[in-house]
Amino acid sequence: MVERQDEGTGQPTGLREAIEQGRTALGIELGSTRIKACLIGPDNAPLASGSHDWENQLVDGTWTYSLDAVWSGLQASVVALLADVEGRYGVRPTTFGAIGVSAMMHGYLAFDDADELLVPFRTWRNTTTERASAELTALLGHNIPLRWSIAHLRQAILDDEPHVSQVRHLTTLAGYVHWRLTGHQVLGVGDASGMFPIDPVTKDYDRRMLDQLDGLLADAVPGRTVADLLPRVLPAGADAGVLTDEGAALLDPTGTLRPGIPLCPPEGDAGTGMVATNSVAPRTGNVSAGTSIFAMVVLEKALERVHEELDLVTTPAGDLVAMVHCNNGASELGAWAELFGQFATALGRPAEPGAVFEALLRSALDGDADGGGLLAYNYLSGEPITGLEAGRPLFTRTPDSRLTLGNFARTQVYSVFGTLSLGMRVLAEEQVELDAMFAHGGLFKTEGVAQRLLAAALGAPVAVGRTAGEGGAWGIAVLAAYRASAQGAAAPEQDLGAYLGAEVFSDAELDVVEPDAEDVAGFSAFLERYSAGLAIERAAVETLRTRDTTQEAAR
């Protein structure tokens, strides 16, 4: 049966009615370079979107975003989405079935009694917490990466930062936005697992570890325990509050949106990536590629020992996940695409940035399997997996290498996957098995390139779905729809995995690429060269100083 079309818009009338009645879900994700809003309909398919580009800033040696930039960017993306809906369907939404907020995980947002930010937001990209990370890992017997919120707090204590005594609560970027929209200081369990270790049995902060750290905190923050400082943990689907009058005004200054819309627990970008790729069950995994790149593998059991290369986090439902997180993803590849775009303009042949990026990416398929002997590092910042405290983007080659556009492009793509591949080897040594690896993010919107080369880097099949380019904004919209399915109850009847299988991915179209033997051998040769050349990268860090050396000098 063909659904009746609206004469004015040409769109199915059922979609217009769903929008008018609020049978939709809005997802907002604050990523590293873009804030995106995604609206989905009753079938979980994207209806409209809006976005706003932004960039982190290196201020006094700290990678940060201002809170003003958070709100101006978020508002711009929501207003763009509302306009997109109106343009497509002839109606401007005043409500949704539910809203979800997601953002970059980890980092340090510390507030005082008056809910004032004490120091500028320290993002996941900052790597000045080495002492605290090592100390906490040894004390807890659990890897505490440099990015984690508890490492930032402990490092501030070790550095005698004067603001510490005033800290009354900590949160993540997603938690901060959710708090301002609802008044509730809560976090989804997946995002919370990047602040402090989670007990997979209780699906809450690990009580033993909390008790162990209270002694380290006692003198620095009198009268407060670690638990006092952290947001309350909620599993996917739980009641996380509703949009307040103040929140509605923050989200949409035009006054279109009405308060009272339920929100799902705020999540991190790792959790929304798992949802967006239907990889929340044991033996599934996904790779998300953006400014950073990371792989998430849902474990069947705990790992045998502590690995500094791996974060132990959770799915949005609270199941244990091994995370291989690399600070540096596709930003350097994007920078080269921008340079080639400028060259095209100089030739009098200007092209859209997206077209330039796609052309560069596709040319990688014309390169030699090993990249022709070229070598590149995409390190704009430090990379803990390879022991680099700072980064210097680097391209080098030997005189007998083959410098072609195809080899250059393939080498740049290989460099995006290089550190990830080294981290995944640790999981292989732990005999962790995978049935499926999914990929998502803008890098995979160009069909048949990054997916094929990632399969070579992992030596495993890689699946990409039709929503791969939607990424986390779509994933958090799905989590919002999952919350809405509870229909006012404390939690939905279906568990998250069952809901995704039955309601979201039952007829999903997947493109699966098997690793090509020649590509696998070529990437292996590249990775050997890449590992050996890390000495060059270290020398570059020591020799080449940035204009703002405060952060590096502090190490």
Keyword list:
Nucleotidyltransferase, domain 5; alpha+beta; disordered C terminus
Q: What is the CA-based Rg, rounded?
A: 23 Å
Beta strands, count: 22
CATH topology of the domain at 18-271: Nucleotidyltransferase, domain 5
Stretches where pLDDT falls below 50 for ≥5 residues?
A: 549-555
Residue-averaged pLDDT: 92
Q: Tell me what the CATH architecture of the domain at 18-271 is.
A: 2-Layer Sandwich
- Structural class designation: alpha+beta
Please describe what this structure looks like.
38% of the residues lie in helices and 17% in strands. Strand 2 (34-40) and strand 3 (46-53) form a beta hairpin. Helix 14 (450-458) packs across helix 17. It has a domain at 18-271: ATPase, nucleotide binding domain (Nucleotidyltransferase, domain 5), CATH 3.30.420. It has a five-stranded mixed beta sheet. Strands 16-17-15-14-20 form a five-stranded mixed beta sheet. It has a two-stranded antiparallel ribbon with strand order 4-5. The longest helix has 25 residues, at 405-429.
